[in-house]
Write a structure and sequence with these properties.
It is a single chain. By secondary structure, this protein is mainly α. The chain folds into two domains: about 100 residues, Serine Threonine Protein Phosphatase 5, Tetratricopeptide repeat, CATH 1.25.40; about 60 residues, no CATH class. It is built from 13 helices and no strands. α4 packs antiparallel against α5 and α5 runs antiparallel to α6. The N and C termini lie far apart (about 60 Å).
Length: about 200
């Protein structure tokens, strides 16, 4: 659409990158990014996600570092995309490092979304002890999404002990049981409580 026209400014450019991402045309999204005369945190955040979609976690991390070299400070959205990229591509060590670095080097603290990404990351690589430690030390009360991330990992890797602990949380049980794909798994590891809930 704009191949033979003036290079798009950052607002239009970001909108076009987002459009091509949704359409699955990652090559065109990258082309638009490379043509932008100025890139803001949104532009860089999109590129981090694009590299993750390509399955290249190292390029996603490099993009994050390049953004900072260009003087753009990462915001909550960028960190969420980075941690999500680490989770999708198995970059567990880098994800842990970046989560810890948020408090030490950046101007914002981790949000619950960031911890959710971290739990998904640790779950994807089977590091359940680290996931349990995150749940115990995070500065928020774990919510339903946090517990669902852990329970999904327990189902995938067969960790019944932590799965029982996760499924036994009141918030998780009352809101989700019987209404999602994990219900059968919860039924298997907590059969008595599951049947009791169905009778209420």
């Amino acid at each position: 659409m704009m191949r033979n026209q003036v290079k798009p400014d950052v607002v239009i450019g970001n909108a076009m990158i987002s459009m091509y991402m949704r359409c699955g045309d990652l090559t065109e999204a990258c082309r638009i990014f490379n043509e932008l005369p100025y890139r803001d945190s949104t532009s860089w955040g999109f590129m981090i996600s694009i590299h993750a979609q390509y399955g290249d976690g190292k390029l996603a991390i490099q993009c994050f570092n390049d953004m900072q070299k260009h003087g753009i400070k990462p915001n909550e959205m960028v960190f969420t995309r980075l941690l999500s990229s680490c989770s999708r591509t198995g970059e567990g060590r880098e994800g842990k490092f970046q989560l810890n670095a948020m408090n030490e080097r950046q101007y914002l603290g981790p949000s619950n979304k960031h911890f959710t990404c971290m739990l998904e990351l640790l779950g994807s690589i089977g590091d359940h002890e680290a996931a349990k430690n995150v749940l115990q030390t995070m500065p928020f009360t774990p919510n339903i999404i946090n517990w669902m991330s852990v329970l999904t990992a327990c189902k995938r890797h067969g960790n019944t002990e932590l799965g029982q602990h996760s499924a036994n949380q009141p918030a998780w049980f009352s809101l989700v049981i019987g209404k999602c794909s994990l219900a059968k798994y919860v039924h298997q590891i907590l059969p008595i409580r599951y049947h009791a809930s169905k009778l209420q």
